[in-house]
Queue: 2 jobs
Job 1
Amino acid sequence: MARAWAEFDQARETEIAPSAQLLADLRTPLPEHGDDVIKGLNDASAVLDASLAQARPRYFAYIGSSGLEVGALADLLAHSYDINLALDAGAASLLEAQAISWLGDFLGYPALTGSFTSGGTVSNLTALAAARERALPGSRAHGLSGVRCAVYCSQEAHYSIKRAAEILGIGREWVRTIPIDAERRMDTIALAECIDADIREGITPIAVIATAGTTLTGAVDPLDDLADVCERTGVWLHVDGAYGLPAAGAPATSDLFIGLARADSVTVDCHKWMFVPKACSAVLVRDPRTLSNVFAHDEAYVPHAGEALNAVDITLEYSRPMRALKLWLAFKVHGAAAFRAAIARNCEQARDLYERAGALDGVAVLTSGPQLSIVPIRRTVPGCPDENAHNAELCTRLQADGRVYVSPATIDGQVWLRPCFTNFRTTSEDVHLLLSLIDSEGADCSHHG
Ligand SMILES: Cc1ncc(COP(=O)(O)O)c(C=O)c1O
C-alpha cells in the first residue's frame, strides 16, 4: 500500500499492460488448497498495478477520485471490525450520525439526518422514493395504480434520475427534461411552465431534481430560483450534487449554490470530490420523517421504528458497511480547511486550462468558462473533414500513450475531450502536460482525409 501511495504522488509515464504471466494467472481455476499469504498479496498488487487507477494524478476521465490514504486505512479498520450499520451498533451509529452532520456543515446544508449509500445512483433513488411518498402518501403500499406523476430535471441531468423513475414506478417517460440556458443550467421559466401545465392536466409533480454540477460540463442549476418554483407549487426539491456539491464548501465557488439550504434532499458522492475511496455517497434530508415514511418497516425480527430511528428505517439496505468512517477520519486528520483548499485548487486548474486552451490556435473551448472543474476541449484542424472522428481518435491515442487519461463526451452533437479535475494530487504541471499533448498529438488529421 505504501508503495502504491508513493507512486500516486507523481504520475507514471505510461500505463502498465498486464504481462503474459499475469493474464495466465488470471485464468487459473479455483484453488482447492491455500498458499502463502505474502505471495497472494504480491499477486493481488501485481493485478492492481496493471489496472487503471483513478487515484493517479493524471487520470482526468469521467469523474475520477483520489483514494485518500487515510480513507483507505479507515476502510481496512472498518472491514476488520465488520460492523453492520443497520440497527443500533453502539458508538459506530453515533459516528455515522456525526459524519452526516459534519458533511452537512461542510456543504452548508442543514441536514437533520441522512445516510451513506453505495453511490449517487442509490442516493438519488433514495431521495426520490421519499419524494414520491410525500407527493402520493400511501403509494409505497398501494402502488401508483395508474396515477400519472412526473419528475423534472434539466436535459443534462445524470441518467440515474431516469433509472430511479423506472424503478419507482413513475416511468422513464414521465421524466420531464427541461431545456437549459446558455450556461447549460436548467431554465427556471420553462420548469415553472411545465409544472403548471402538468398540474392543470391532473399530473402529480413528484420532485424537481436540480443538478449541482452536471456530469457533462459541471453546470450548476440555479438552486434559489428553482427553490422558489418548488415553494410556490409545493414540489419536493432534490439537489443532485453527486459530483459538484463539495464546491459549495469552498468560498470561491459557494455562491453558485445559494438556495441549497432550501432543498428537501441532497446527494453528494464523497468518493468523488471529497477524495475518499469508493463507495461513499451520502443522501441528506432536512426532515428525517420523509425517509422513515417510505423506508421504515415493522418486522418480527427487526426492532421496529421507535423514537430513535435505525439506519434501516431510513435506507434501502440492511447489510450496511461502515462507509462513514473514511469521511469522518479524513475530516479529523486533515480538517475541513484542507478539503476546501483542494477543491478550490481543482477549480483553479480548470480555469487555468480553460484560459490557456482558449488562447491557442487550433484548440476550441466552450464559450462559457468552467463553473466547477470540468473543461471540455476540442482540437480543430483547418481542412479536417471529420473533426468528430479526429477528436474521438485523439482521445483513444492519448489513452494509449498513457501519460494522461481523458475520456470523450458529445456536446451538442460534437465530440469533445472532457477533462475533469477531482484529485488533490493533480499539479499544474500535470494540467499543462495535458494541454500540450492535446495540442501536439491532435495537430495532424491526415488520416481523416
Ligand atoms: C451528477 C451525477 N449524479 C449521479 C451520479 C451517479 O453516481 P454513482 O456513480 O456514484 O452512482 C453521477 C456519476 O457520475 C453524477 O455525475
Job 2
Amino acid sequence: MRFERQAVLIELRSAVEATHPPLQHSSEVCIMVEIDDRSDLQRFLRSWVGNPLRVGAIAPSGVSLAQLITSEISEESGPVLELGAGTGVFTRALLARGVDERNLTIIEYGSDFARLLDFRFPKARVLWMDASQLAKYKLFEPAMVGAVVSGLPLLSMPPRKVIAILSGAFMYLQNNGAFYQFTYGPRCPVSRTILDRLGLKAVRIGRTVRNLPPAAVYRITRRRSFEWRRDASDLPPQAPKPS
Ligand SMILES: C[S@@+](CC[C@H](N)C(=O)[O-])C[C@H]1O[C@@H](n2cnc3c(N)ncnc32)[C@H](O)[C@@H]1O
C-alpha cells in the first residue's frame, strides 16, 4: 500500500514537472494528498495533462472538502444538480447525505469522466455537456432544483461563461435554493461585478485545510431585494390611491 502510494506520487510528480515546470510547487503539495483510489488519481492526472484549464486540479477533491460542500444538503433538498463532477467525490458525499440517486442530475464535460459517472451512478441522470449550455435545454421545470453543487473551475473561465453557468443554474433553482462552489483562491471565485449583475450574494460557509490545496466553499443565493423586486413585478398593478 505504501509502495503503491509512493509509486503514484512519483508518477504524479513526473507528469506535472514534464508538462508544467512552473507548477513544481503544486506537485510538492500533491505529495500529501490522501489517495483513496489510485485509478481515480491516474484518471484525473491524465485528464489534467490533456486539458489543464478545463480540469482545473491535478487530483480529485478529498473527503473533507466533499463533506463541507454538501453539508447543507439532505434528502429534503429534492432534486440536486451537480456540475463538473469529475470522478464523483462530491456525488458520493451527496448520496451519503441521503440524497436519492434518482434525484441527481450530473453535468460533466470530460467524456471519460462522464462515462465513468454513468457507470458509477446508474440511477442518476448523467449528461455529457458543457455547463454553460444549461439554459439551452429544458433539464427541469423552472424552480425545481433544491441545490446546485459545483466543482467547476470557475476561476479559469471567462466572465461570459461564468454568467451563462450561473444564470442557467438559477433558472432551475428554487427561490430559496443555493449554489455551492468551492475554490482554492482567497475569495469567492465569482466576481462582485457578476454577483451584482445577477442579483446574487455569496457567503463563505467554511474552509478545510484537510484538502490539498486547502479550499473554501461559498454558498451563492439570490439577494432578497432582488426577489422582492421580481415578486413585486409579478403582482397585478394596483389601483391608484385616492388623493
Ligand atoms: C476541479 S475538477 C473537480 C472534479 C470533482 N468535482 C472533484 O472535486 O474532485 C473540475 C471538473 O469540471 C469539469 N468541467 C470543466 N468545465 C466544464 C464545463 N464547462 N461543463 C461541465 N463540466 C466541466 C472537468 O472536466 C472536471 O471534471
